[in-house]
């Protein structure tokens, strides 16, 4: 079964609203989680590294005020897309590292459509 | 970051072996070679990883060149469910972060 749970799987929202995506590690604790976005027919692009109990580290070109990341516990990280616009429509994917076996597990992704 | 080079796409017939190549000529001594695959509309899933020796698991085999500058993912008997984008990724043993390249889109012909 899935070891990283991501919700919702699909969301449609109006322009200007905020959307929160949750990422949970089910079988292990994750001090670090990652958030990616993916446009159709393209590869995954790393947006930020989410660190439990501290601020997220954003990749170059990713607006930290636009994409708010909270990692309040060892099993939960959230990504909030604030004031969403149509150009934010994308497939968002989270991942978490199981330190014990050195494997990175991915959520099933969230398809965001902003009207 | 050390980079990898993969063919954009490959085709294979169902129930035949598939060899997916990956070049990583700038690999460092502490880089692990990881393979992930992504089925349509899903997040990537782990396939296999290795450092120097060839590796086998229930999903695939990983053959690593002696100089570690290239590797090959081997699917021993492809099925239609193996149609996906396969990513070859280098990850330093001290780094959790994974940067994805463009990957190889594998088409399986019935």
Write the layout of secondary structure elements.
The complex is a heterodimer of chains A (115) and B (110).
Chain A (H helix, E strand, L loop, with lengths): L3 E4 L2 E4 L5 E7 L6 E7 L6 E7 L5 E2 L8 E7 L2 E6 L8 E9 L4 E4 L3 E5 L1
Chain B lengths: L8 E5 L4 E6 L7 E8 L6 E6 L4 E2 L4 E4 L5 E6 L8 E9 L11 E6 L1
Parallel strand pairs in B: 1-9
Antiparallel strand pairs in B: 2-7, 3-4, 3-8, 5-6, 6-7, 8-9
Write up what this structure looks like:
The complex is a heterodimer of chains A (115) and B (110). Chain A has strands spanning 4-7, 10-13, 19-25, 32-38, 45-51, 57-58, 67-73, 76-81, 90-98, 103-106, 110-114. Chain A is mainly beta and 115 residues long. In chain A, strands 2, 4, 5, 6, 9, 10 and 11 form a 7-stranded mixed β-sheet that branches. Chain A has a 4-stranded antiparallel β-sheet with strand order 1-3-8-7, with no helix packed on it. In chain A, strand 4 and strand 5 form a beta hairpin. The model of chain A has no long low-confidence stretch (mean pLDDT 92). Chain B has 110 residues and is mainly beta. Chains A and B meet through strand 4, strand 5, strand 9 and strand 10 of A and strand 3 and strand 4 of B.
List keywords for this structure.
heterodimer; A: 115 residues; mainly beta; four-stranded antiparallel beta sheet; B: 110 residues; five-stranded mixed beta sheet; globular
Based on Cα principal axes, name the global outline of chain A.
globular
Give the overall average pLDDT of chain B. 93
Please, how many helices of chain A?
A: 0
Q: How far is it from the N-terminal to the C-terminal residue of chain B, by CA?
A: 38 Å
Largest sheet of chain B: 5 strands, mixed
How large a portion of the residues of chain A is in β-strands, by DSSP E? over 45%
SSE class of chain A: mainly beta
| H-E string of chain B | EEEEEEEEE
Ranges of chain B where pLDDT stays below 50 over 5 or more residues in a row are none
Q: What is the overall number of helices of chain B?
A: 0
Largest interface: A-B, 24 and 20 residues
Q: Tally the beta strands of chain B.
A: 9
State the share of residues found in helices of chain A, binned by percent: under 10%
């Amino acid at each position: 079964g899935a070891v990283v749970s991501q919700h919702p799987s699909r969301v449609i929202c109006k322009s200007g609203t905020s959307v929160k995506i949750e990422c949970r590690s089910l079988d292990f604790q994750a001090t670090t989680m990652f958030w990616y976005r993916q446009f159709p027919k393209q590869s995954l692009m790393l947006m930020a590294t989410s660190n439990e109990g501290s601020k997220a580290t954003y990749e170059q070109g990713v607006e930290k005020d636009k994409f708010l990341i909270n990692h309040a516990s060892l099993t939960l990280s959230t990504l909030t897309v604030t004031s969403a616009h149509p150009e934010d429509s994308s497939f968002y994917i989270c991942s978490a590292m199981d330190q014990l076996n050195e494997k990175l597990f991915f959520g099933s992704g969230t398809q965001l459509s902003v009207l | 970051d050390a980079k990898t080079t993969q063919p954009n796409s490959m085709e294979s017939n169902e129930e035949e072996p598939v060899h997916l190549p990956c070049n990583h000529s700038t690999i460092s001594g502490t880089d692990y070679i990881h393979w992930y695959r992504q089925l349509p509309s899903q997040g990537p899933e782990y396939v296999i990883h290795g450092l120097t020796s060839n590796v086998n698991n229930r999903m695939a085999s990983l053959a690593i060149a002696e100089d570690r500058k290239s590797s090959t993912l081997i699917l021993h008997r492809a099925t239609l469910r193996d149609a996906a984008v396969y990513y070859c990724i280098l990850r330093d043993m001290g780094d959790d972060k994974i940067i994805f390249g463009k990957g190889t889109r594998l088409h399986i012909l019935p």
